[in-house]
Write a structure and sequence with these properties.
The complex is a heterodimer of chains A (694) and B (102). Chain A is mainly alpha-helical. Chain A is built from 25 helices and 4 strands. With 102 residues, chain B is mostly helical. Chain B has one domain: Helix Hairpins (Orthogonal Bundle). Chain B contains 3 helices and no strands. The longest helix of chain B is centred in the C-terminal third of the chain and has 31 residues. The N and C termini of chain B lie far apart (57 Å). Classes of the chains: A mainly alpha (694), B mainly alpha (102). At the A-B interface, helix 25 of A face helix 1 of B.
C-alpha cells in the first residue's frame, strides 16, 4: 500500500459521482432506467470509501497524506518569482471518516429514494442532482486548500438549491430554494473576504502552508486582531452553510425539498460542511474568534430548540433540531472540544439521517401528510419505522448506550471544563437547557406521531409499513446510533477508538498571546515533544472533574425532558393547550419562530426591495434617460450629418462633375476632327503668342 | 526704282498668305497640297532674297535647292496618302475626313 494509491483512490471517489451525474443527466430523458447506473455508481463510491477508510486507518493512521499539482501560475517579472495556484488532496483520518459518512448516507438515501420518489416525472434528474451533490461534498472533504474548498462549497450550494427547488411547480419550494441560495451567499461573502485576506498575506491557499506561516509568526497585517477577523470571516461561511444564527432561516424552509434530500443534505452532510470547515481552520482561530464561534453556536443551539417545541410539521421540528445540534457542534469548536465536535458531526449525521428518513417513511405512508396533529397511533402500523425512530431520538436526546450520548455528553463536559478554566459559565448552562428542550420536543414528536389514537382515521387506515428499500436504510442508520461502533465502554467515549486513536488531536498555530490560557503550549519536558492542548495536564484535569457532573446533569435533563413529554402528551396529565394559553405570548413567539422571517422581511428584505426600487427608478429614468438622450442626440446629429453629406459633400462632388462637363462642352467645340480648323487655331494662337513674346 | 529686299519679302509674304489661305479654306485635299507648295516656295524666295542681300555667301541658295528636293519628296508621299484616302473613303474632301474627332 503506497500513499499514491490512496490519492488515486480518493480521486476515483471524487470523480465517480460526477460521472454518474453527467451520464444520468444526459441520458435521463431517453433511458428510463438510467437511475440504476447512478445507484451502482454510488454503491461503488461507498465501497471505495470504506476501502479508503480501512487502508488509511490500517496503514497510515498517523500520517497525513497530501498531494497537489499546479493549476495555473502567474509569473512576476519584476521580482522574478512565480505565484502558483494549486489543486490538491489531503487525506487525514478526519477526511477518511467524513468521506465514509458522506458516501454511506448518500448511498442509503439513493436506495431510499428509489422507492420514495417512484412515479416522479423528473425521477432521473433527481438522481443526477444527488450525484452532483455527492461529488461536490467529496470535493469539500478531500481538498487541501481553501480555494478548492470554496469552489466545491459553492457547488454544494448549487446542488442544494437544485434539490430544494426540485418540485419547483410549487411556489413555496421555488422560493425556499431561492432563499437558501441567497442566505448562503451572504455567509459566503464573509468567507470569500477571509480567503482574500489569507491569500494576500500568505500567497497560498494551502492549509498546511498557511498554518506553518502563522506558527512562524506571519500574521495578516501583522496583528492578532486581523487574525481574529480572518477567523471570524471564514466562519461566516460556516454560519451560512451550517445554518447558524442569524442565517439559520433558510434551513427550515429547505424542508420543501423531497424528504430524502432533507436527510442527505439538510441534516446529515451538507450542513455539516460548515462544521467541517471550522474543524479545518481550527488551527488559526484565536481566543476571541473561538469565543465568537462559541457564542454563535450557543445561540443557534438555543433559539431553534425553543422554536421546535411548538412546530407542528414533522419535518420542521427535525429541521430546527438540526440547527440546534449544529449549534452544539459549533459551540463545541468554540470551547475547544475539537474532537467531540467532529464526533458529534458523525453520530449526528447517522441518527439525524435516520430521523429524517423515518419521517419520510411516515410521510410516504400518510400520503404526503406532514402535520403531526393529524397523525398518531402509527406505532403498530409501522413498527420498524417506529423503533428506528425511537432509537435515533434516544440518541439525539443523549440517553446512554447510544452514540448521541457519547458525543453530546462529551460536548457538555467540555463546555463545563471550559467554563471552569475561563469562567464563561453560560456555555454549560445553555447546553444543558438545550439538552432538556431537545429531549422534550423529540419525544413530543414521537408521541404525537406514533402513540395514542389516530386523529385522521381515513389516512390512518391507508398507512402501511414502507417497502424494504426504505426500511433497510432506517435499520442500518439506527444500528449505527448504538455505542458499540464507537467505543467499548458506553459511558466513556474517551476510551473508544474513534476519539483516542482515529481523530487527530488538533494543533493550534496562533501566537501564544492570543490563545486561551489553557491552550498555551506546554511541552513534555522529558521527551521535548510539543503536545496538543488536549493532552495538557490542566485541560485533562478540568475534563476529568467535569466528566461526572456533566454526565449526571445531562442525563437528568434528558430524562426530565422525556418524562415531561410523556406527562403532557402521552398521559395527558397536563393539558398542553392550557399551558399554551397561559403563556400565550411566549407560545406565539416560539410558534412564529421568534419572528425571524418577519423581522428579516421588514428590515433586510424590505430594505433590499426598496433599494432595488430606487435603483430601478434610477435605471428607468436616469440611465435610460441618458441612453435615450444620447440616442436622440445621435439621431438628430446623424440627420444633420446626413443632410450635410447629401447637400454639401454631394453638392461639391456633383458640382465638380457638372463644372467639368461644362468645360468639356466648351472645349468639345474645338475638337472638330477637321484638320483645317486645327490649323487655323494653331496659326491664330501662334499670332497671339508672337504678339505676347515679341 | 531698284528692286530691293523689301519687294522680295512682300512678294514672299503674299505668296505665303495665299498658300495659307489655300490650306485653310480649300476643301479638296489636292488643293491643300498645292497651298503647301506655295508656302514652301515663299520660303524659297525668302532664302534666296536673304542670300542675295545679306552677307551669307551661297548658303541660302543651297537651302532653297534642298527645299525644292524636299518639296518633291513631300509631294510624292502626300499624293500617295491622298490616293489611299480616296481609295478608303471615296472622297478627298478634308471636311469629311474627320475620323480624328472620335
Amino acid at each position: 500500500m503506497y500513499e499514491s494509491t490512496l490519492i488515486n483512490l480518493s480521486l476515483f471517489i471524487l470523480l465517480l459521482p460526477l460521472l454518474g451525474f453527467v451520464v444520468t443527466l444526459l441520458l435521463g430523458k431517453k433511458v428510463k432506467s438510467v437511475f440504476i447506473f447512478e445507484n451502482l455508481i454510488i454503491i461503488l463510491t461507498f465501497f471505495s470509501s470504506v476501502y479508503l477508510l480501512y487502508s488509511k486507518l490500517a496503514n497510515f493512521r498517523t500520517t497525513k497524506i497530501s498531494s497537489e499539482l499546479e493549476w495555473f501560475g502567474f509569473n512576476n517579472f519584476i521580482t522574478g518569482t512565480k505565484l502558483s495556484i494549486n489543486l490538491g488532496f489531503m487525506i487525514d483520518n478526519i477526511t477518511a471518516i467524513m468521506l465514509f459518512v458522506v458516501a454511506l448516507i448518500s448511498m442509503l438515501v439513493h436506495l431510499y429514494s428509489i422507492e420514495y420518489m417512484k412515479g416522479d416525472e423528473r425521477y432521473n434528474r433527481y438522481f443526477a442532482y444527488l450525484g452532483i451533490f455527492t461529488f461536490s461534498m467529496n470535493g469539500i472533504v478531500l481538498t487541501n486548500n481553501i480555494l478548492m474548498m470554496y469552489i466545491f462549497w459553492e457547488l454544494v450550494g448549487l446542488s442544494s438549491y437544485l434539490l430544494i427547488g426540485f418540485w419547483f411547480e410549487k411556489k413555496t419550494a421555488a422560493d425556499a430554494g431561492k432563499k437558501a441560495f441567497i442566505v448562503n451567499r451572504i455567509g459566503d461573502i464573509g468567507m470569500f473576504a477571509g480567503i482574500l485576506i489569507l491569500f494576500l498575506t500568505y500567497q497560498t491557499f494551502s492549509f498546511d502552508k498557511i498554518f506553518s506561516s502563522i506558527s512562524s509568526g506571519v500574521l495578516p497585517f501583522n496583528s492578532d486582531f486581523w487574525l481574529t477577523v480572518t477567523g471570524i470571516l471564514l466562519f461566516c461561511g460556516a454560519i451560512g452553510k451550517s445554518a447558524q444564527f442569524p442565517l439559520h432561516v433558510w434551513l427550515p424552509d429547505a424542508m420543501e425539498g423531497p424528504t430524502p434530500v432533507s436527510a442527505l443534505i439538510h441534516a446529515a452532510t451538507m450542513v455539516a460542511a460548515g462544521v467541517y470547515l471550522v474543524v479545518r481552520i481550527f488551527g488559526l482561530l484565536t481566543a476571541d474568534a473561538m469565543l465568537f464561534i462559541g457564542v454563535i453556536g450557543m445561540i443557534s443551539a438555543f433559539i431553534p430548540a425553543t422554536i421546535a417545541l411548538t412546530q407542528n410539521d414533522i419535518k420542521k421540528v427535525l429541521a430546527y433540531s438540526t440547527v440546534s445540534q449544529l449549534g452544539y457542534m459549533i459551540m463545541a469548536l468554540g470551547v475547544g472540544a475539537y474532537q467531540f465536535a467532529f464526533f458529534h458531526l458523525v453520530t449526528h449525521a447517522f441518527f439525524k439521517a435516520a430521523l429524517f428518513l423515518g419521517s419520510g417513511s411516515v410521510i410516504h405512508a400518510m400520503h404526503h401528510e406532514q402535520d403531526i396533529r393529524k397523525m398518531g397511533g402509527l406505532r403498530n402500523k409501522m413498527p420498524l419505522t417506529y423503533w428506528t425512530f425511537v432509537i435515533s431520538s434516544l440518541a439525539i436526546s443523549g440517553i446512554p448506550l447510544t452514540s448521541g450520548f457519547l458525543s453530546k455528553d462529551g460536548i457538555i463536559a467540555s463546555s463545563m471544563a471550559f467554563a471552569n478554566l475561563t469562567g464563561h459559565y453560560l456555555f454549560p448552562i445553555f447546553s444543558l437547557v438545550v439538552a432538556l428542550l431537545t429531549a422534550f420536543y423529540m419525544f413530543r414528536l414521537i408521541i404525537l406521531t406514533f402513540h395514542g389514537e389516530p386523529r385522521d382515521i381515513h389516512k390512518f387506515e391507508h398507512a402501511h409499513e414502507s417497502p424494504f428499500l426504505m426500511v433497510m436504510p432506517l435499520v442500518l442508520l439506527a444500528g449505527l446510533s448504538i455505542f458499540i461502533w464507537y467505543t467499548p465502554n458506553p459511558l466513556n467515549s474517551e476510551q473508544g477508538w474513534i476519539l483516542s486513536k482515529w481523530i487527530e488531536k488538533p494543533t493550534v498555530f496562533t501566537p501564544e498571546r492570543s490563545r486561551f490560557d489553557f491552550m498555551k503550549s506546554s511541552s513534555d519536558e522529558e521527551n521535548n515533544i510539543k503536545q496538543s492542548y488536549l493532552d495538557a495536564e490542566v485541560y485533562k484535569e478540568a475534563m476529568h472533574s467535569a466528566h461526572y457532573p456533566a454526565m449526571i446533569l445531562s442525563e437528568l435533563m434528558a430524562i426530565l425532558g422525556i418524562l415531561f413529554a410523556f406527562i403532557v402528551y402521552q398521559w395527558k396529565k397536563i393539558n398542553a393547550d392550557s399551558i399554551a394559553d397561559k403563556i400565550k405570548p411566549l407560545y406565539n413567539f416560539s410558534l412564529n419562530k421568534w419572528y425571524f422571517d418577519e423581522i428579516y422581511n421588514k428590515t433586510f428584505v424590505a430594505f433590499t426591495i426598496g433599494l432595488s426600487k430606487v435603483l430601478a427608478w434610477f435605471d428607468a429614468k436616469i440611465i435610460d434617460g441618458m441612453v435615450n438622450g444620447s440616442a436622440f442626440l445621435t439621431k438628430h446629429f446623424s440627420f444633420f450629418i446626413g443632410n450635410f453629406d447629401k447637400y454639401v459633400i454631394d453638392g461639391i462632388v456633383n458640382f465638380t462633375a457638372y463644372f467639368n462637363g461644362f468645360i468639356g462642352l466648351l472645349v468639345r467645340r474645338i475638337q472638330t476632327g477637321k484638320v483645317q480648323s486645327y490649323l487655323a487655331l494653331v496659326i491664330f494662337s501662334l499670332v497671339i503668342l508672337l504678339f505676347i513674346f515679341k | 526704282m531698284t528692286v530691293g529686299l523689301t519687294h522680295f519679302l512682300v512678294v514672299s509674304t503674299l505668296l505665303f498668305s495665299m498658300g495659307l489661305y489655300a490650306i485653310i479654306t480649300r476643301k479638296n485635299a489636292i488643293l491643300v497640297l498645292m497651298g503647301i507648295e506655295l508656302i514652301l516656295n515663299s520660303a524659297n524666295i525668302n532664302f534666296v532674297a536673304f542670300s542675295r542681300f545679306g552677307n551669307f555667301g551661297y548658303s541660302g541658295h543651297l537651302v532653297a535647292l534642298f527645299v525644292i528636293v524636299l518639296a518633291a519628296a513631300e509631294a510624292a508621299i502626300a499624293l500617295a496618302i491622298v490616293l489611299n484616302i480616296y481609295k478608303n473613303m471615296s472622297t478627298v474632301n478634308v471636311d469629311e475626313i474627320d475620323n480624328l474627332r472620335d
